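RECORD TYPE: protein structure
NAME: Hpt domain-containing protein
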Amino acid sequence: MNLADLDATLGRVTVDELLTVYRQDLATRLAQLRAATTPDEVRHHAHGLRSGAASFGAMALADAARDVERGDGSLAAVEHAASALDAALATRLHH
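PREDICTED:
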């Protein structure tokens, strides 16, 4: 994830505040995707994950969520990408 452009535009403090909110949203959206029981719900929640991830340049998660949204991806791939992203966010936000 490359946040240098956002840092330069908005300032690191503001970006970190946005990332803190996004990190909470990520956990909520993952829970919603896990709980989805219909194809429409899966597509809807995968789309939300993809959009948020793409906004911050988290392309591994965006790509995995896009695949689930299209019906040819796996929740495991989304979970893996989300876990890696969460770890990266935790590292950034605790420094």
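COMMENT: The chain is about 85% helix and 0% strand.
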